[in-house]
Structures are given as C-alpha cells and as structure tokens.
Design brief:
2 copies of one chain form a homodimer.
Chain A: E1 10-14, H1 20-29, E2 35-39, H2 51-68, E3 72-75, H3 78-91, E4 97-98, H4 101-111, E5 116-121, H5 123-128, H6 130-138, E6 143-148, H7 150-158, H8 164-178, E7 187-190, H9 199-206, E8 211-214, H10 215-229, E9 242-246, H11 250-256, H12 258-261, E10 270-272
Helix pairs in contact in A: 1-10, 2-3, 4-6, 4-10, 8-9
Chain lengths: 275, 275
C-alpha cells in the first residue's frame, strides 16, 4: 500500500553540501519528519553560474525528488531559490515548495532597527538581487548592501571556520561596510548555506551588537507553518529517516558534510543519482 | 574550399577559466597559430568531482571541438588531464592530444636536484596521483609530496593574488613541508591552471632557492614539438585568431579571464555553447 501523503519525506534540494545547514535546522525544528536530501554535487557550485543554468538544474533535481515521492520541497540553496523558485512553483502547482530567500528576508526585517541590512551571499545571489527586492518589499525604507563573499564558500568546504585566515578574509569583505560606527548595518543576513559555520568569525568582525540572521532556521519555521496549514505534518512520535542523494562524489560528501550537518554521515546513507 | 589541416585552430579545453594560463603560454610559444578555447564553465570546478564524471565531461567537450574543426587538442585542465587523457586518446586516435601532467612532471624532474618535489594541485588531482606516478616514472628515487591547495582556486578567481591573506593561506598549505630547511623540497609544481597568478606569493613563502615549475609553459613546448613532428605547424607569418566557447556565464568569463590570460577579453569574442 502506498504511504499516506503526510508520511512521505520532505525533499531538500541543494547545489551540493551547504544545504546541509538547512537540513540541520529542519531536523531541529521538525524532528519527527523524514528527509530526502538531494545535493547536485556534479554541478556545484551554483553561485557563479547564470540564472538560466541554475533554473534548468533545479527543475531536473526537483523532478527527481517528486519521482521518488516527497510531500514538500525545501530549496536549500540561496542561488537556486533566487533563480528558480518561480519556475518550480509554476511546474509543480499544489506541491508546497519553500525557498530560503523570503524567510531570510522576513527575518532580517524583523531583526533590524535602523533598516540598514548587509546581505552576505555568492556572486550569483548578489547579482540576482532577490534578497534586496524581498527586503524592500517588506520595509520600503530599508537600505540593503549586498556583499559577494565568494571565498567564504571555499573556507567552509575546507573546514577552515576559525583562526586568523578566516578573520582576515571576513575583515576584507566586511570592514568597508562596518568601518563607520555610526552608519554601519545593524543586521547581517547569511545569504548562502555555506556561511553558518562561519557565523562566529563574522560576528567577531562586525561586533556583538549586530544581529546575524541565518536563513536556514527561518526557512525551517516557514516550512513548519506551511505543513501545518495543509495538514501535512507527520504523525507525532514518529522516528524520521534521513537519506542523501548526490550527483557525484559520495565519499567526499560524507567526509565534508559533517561540518555543515553537525553530525557524522555514513557512506552507506549516501546514494549516487544521475539527473 | 575546406581549410588545409595545418591551418585549423588548436583546440584548448579546460574546466573553465584557469586554462587561460595555458592559452597564454601557447600564444607566447606558438604565436602564429589560431586557437579555439572551450571552458566548461557550467560544470566547473572539476577539482572536487570524481574521475568518472570528469572523464565524461572531457569526452563531450573534445567531441565539440572536433566537430568545429581543430588540428590538435590541449587538455589545459590538470584534473581533466589526469582523469581523461587515456579515454580521449582512445576515442580520437590520430588526433594530437597533449595534457598538462606529463610535461609538468618532466619539467619537475629536469628542475630538481634532490629529487624532493612538492606538487600543489586540486583535491581531485592529488587524489588521482597522476603527478606522483609520472614523476616517479621518470626518476625512480623521487620523493613527491602532493598538497591539495583548494583555496588557491577561489583566491585566483577572486583576483586576490598578493597581500597578507594570500601569504597566510600559502603559509598554511606550505609551511609544514618547508619548515625543515635541510629536508624541504627544492621544486614546486603548480599542478593547477589557477595557480600561476599566485606564483610570486608561493615563491615568497618557499624561498627563492626553490624552483617553481609551471605546467602551462612546458605543455606549450610539448605541443610545439608534436605539431612540428607531424607537419602541422601553421605557415610562418600568419596572424592567428582566438575564439572562446563557454558552457555558461560569458560575461563572467570576460570579466574574470584577464587575470589568467594577461590581456582583456571582449564580450564579443565569447560564445555560449551547450554540451
């Protein structure tokens, strides 16, 4: 007998490994659910690719998740959320799909007092301007400064998340914005799933009075609301399962992933899939 | 009338942008030739992908170059040279195909006195062990230490090729190998096409007595020899042309490329191609 719809797993789609920070937040917020994570590791990173390419890849990935059976999809990649969410919603009406940009923008607007917000993201996300638009839509007088912090991705993948090198790089990206004590942003949005492991290093540069908004957590909250409203929460007390699909490099995924997921990943949990 | 074979361009295949350092060396060594450069920017970087995926991509890319007409192919990407050269040679017998690993290994063996050689490369190249094998094949008592210098790729793409951040990162990767003055390598191979812009920073860390071998230049020499031996050199005095094909992001290619090519790239020189 086919599983009841609310017992199906939640699909989590990412360009590769960074989306595991979103899965981590989902596991904390919705622990009774099952998850099917798909990381498009053969084509990562999305952050330096065009919106058209990212949209095409996202449509393929979400079609694969649907083929395997999911009750909802979280687009855990900021670049893909910015580039592909409209196309995904149009292709799959009726399926709950949550990106990370809108929840992140909403959380930033809730956190800021001055309305002066810095968004740290990849080149693609910055260029697309989706955070800027979503923030201004919610607070018309907001001043948003977007910084493409490309090297943060490589630092997080290398597992270099503290120490002098990280501090120097964070300073180089952020010092120009935070130099003027009286006109600095009061809120920083981590607009790339690779950045949460660097949150402490970023906070040390911008100062303790600046709020750090992690899109992962707010997106998990947005999904929880959406599942509730559609009656799609798993029955209470269930022990959920987690499975991983990757398009390349199962072993590297299992080795690098724990930096982002916060728990070990066994090779046997990771399956290769061709899109 | 179809062009005579020796007047066809030389195909240069790379995972993206870094191979422009090889094209730069080719333009210096063989200035009368025409070039057709193909950067697989939609799927870069290759360095963290499996050998099987890289081989598949390389076969597609070289088939496209052949379809457009080339008299020889340079595989300008170290990762692709290591993973795909045997398959490329098997698929296209009769076509001169040169990778960057064998020439780089030969140059390292020529440069070293002690036989103690450091290879800086991507994760994929290091894991594949091709430099290690090619060096030991030429000098049985060689001691090769391979370092996966992942962050160098991001640094070069960001255009950060000098200053304290670069020095700290180079120190972190290299200091363990070069700490002991009496037992340090005397030769460093730049085993990734992204690394030549960082050569000065690397040299500053390892010291002026350590030779830096750039695979790009030695590969250009190897191709020159191969073309001569097969009577495929372009007629003397020709003014060659250069065209660029990329699988994504023409504008980014034109913007980031000059760091590697050493001359401006006009948007109009760059064409998008689907593999």
């Amino acid at each position: 007998m086919a599983a009841a719809r609310h017992e199906l797993p939640i699909g989590v789609f990412d360009s590769g490994i960074g989306g595991l920070t979103v899965l981590k937040a989902l596991l904390e917020r919705l622990p009774g659910e099952s998850y099917l994570y798909l990381g498009d590791t053969a084509r990562l990173p999305y952050g330096t690719k065009t919106a058209a390419a990212v949209e095409r890849y996202a449509l393929q990935a979400v079609a694969e998740l649907i083929r395997r059976g999911v009750k909802a999809v979280v687009v855990a990649c900021n670049t893909a959320s910015a580039a592909a969410l409209p196309a995904l919603l149009a292709a799959h009406p009726g399926l709950p799909i949550v990106g990370v940009i809108e929840p992140g923008a909403a959380a930033a607007v809730a956190a800021t007092h001055s309305g002066h917000i810095a968004v740290l993201a990849t080149e693609g996300t910055v260029r697309g301007g989706a955070y800027q638009r979503e923030i201004v839509k919610r607070r018309a007088d907001a001043r948003v400064e977007a910084v493409a912090a490309t090297l943060f991705v490589a630092l997080a993948e290398e597992g270099w998340v503290r120490g002098e090198i990280v501090a120097s790089i964070a300073r180089r990206y952020l010092a120009p914005l935070f130099a003027a004590a009286t006109d600095a942003p009061d809120t920083v949005v981590l607009g790339c799933t690779h950045f949460p492991p660097l949150a402490a290093a970023i906070s040390a540069i911008v100062g303790p009075h600046v709020q750090i908004v992690d899109s992962a957590f707010t997106s998990a909250g947005a999904l929880a609301q959406l599942l509730e409203s559609r009656g799609l929460r798993s029955a209470a007390g269930n022990a959920g399962t987690v499975r991983f699909l990757v398009t390349d490099g199962e072993q590297r995924f299992a080795r690098v992933g724990p930096t982002f997921l916060g728990r070990p990943i066994d090779d046997a949990e990771v399956e290769r899939v061709n899109l």
